[in-house]
Amino acid sequence: MQHIGKIILHNDIFEKAQNLQQQILSQNQIVREFACEELKMDDAHDIIAEAFIAEKETKTIIIVAQNFRNEAQNALLKILEEPPNNIHFIIITRNKTALLPTIRSRLVVEDLREKSEIAAFGLDITKLDLGKIFEFVKGLNAGESSKSASKEMIESLLLAIHSAGIKLNENELEMFDNALLELQNYRRISLVITPLLLMLLLKNKNS
């Protein structure tokens, strides 16, 4: 598949977008930026309309957002796969899981994030039982967790699994991908992480 643009992962997405826009303008090239906290359907329609405004020179369209509505991403699929002549897309976001796999497959991913240490997971996953899982999830229900904090908890669980030498098969890894997508759709962390912990409990019993 020919890639007609890229996804940039960055800690400060709006600063990165501004710097990139200035860099492109300094080269006397055309650039249009669409920046928002959450990309919605109306934004997707505006992006598509901009892409079809003909230019003789290459035009870069920068899309920068923390979150992306699934319907907006689906609306952009066709134009990302078959963009008009001289159109180059750059999507800037913090986490690639904010984007659907179908979007990620159409663009090259460039990770420019500064790596931060992931906190230890709150349970010993090698000694799981139903009681410990219940108390852990009960604690999650008692508080509130931001989308970024919830994502870090899933990442922390994955790190704990790796450190414990537990091997996940393809279906089990897909469960984690789906969990991260559910978090993007504002599903509570307690509902997302419970099936993962139950899967690990069963896996430990069968090993």
Describe the 3D structure.
With 207 residues, the protein is of the alpha/beta class. Helix 2 (41-51) runs parallel beside helix 3. Strands 2-3-4-1-5 form a 5-stranded parallel β-sheet, sandwiched between helices. 50% of the residues lie in helices and 17% in strands. The radius of gyration is 20 Å and the shape is elongated. The protein has helices spanning 13-26, 41-51, 70-81, 101-104, 130-142, 147-163, 170-184, 189-206, and strands at residues 5-9, 30-39, 59-68, 87-93, 108-111.
Fill in the keyword field for this structure:
8 helices, single chain, elongated, alpha/beta, 5-stranded parallel beta sheet, 207 residues
Residue fraction in strands = 15-25%
Sum up the overall morphology in one term: elongated
Order of helices and strands: EHEHEHEHEHHHH
Low-confidence stretches: none
Derived from helix and strand composition plus strand pairing, the structural class reads alpha/beta
Please work out how many helical segments DSSP would assign: 8
Largest sheet: 5 strands, parallel
State the distance separating the first and last CA atoms.
Answer: 40 Å
DSSP helix fraction: 40-55%
Quick structural summary:
50% of the residues lie in helices and 17% in strands.
Q: Which helices and strands appear, and what pairs or packs with what?
A:
Blueprint: E1 5-9, H1 13-26, E2 30-39, H2 41-51, E3 59-68, H3 70-81, E4 87-93, H4 101-104, E5 108-111, H5 130-142, H6 147-163, H7 170-184, H8 189-206
Parallel strand pairs: 1-4, 1-5, 2-3, 3-4
Helix pairs in contact: 2-3, 5-8, 6-7, 7-8
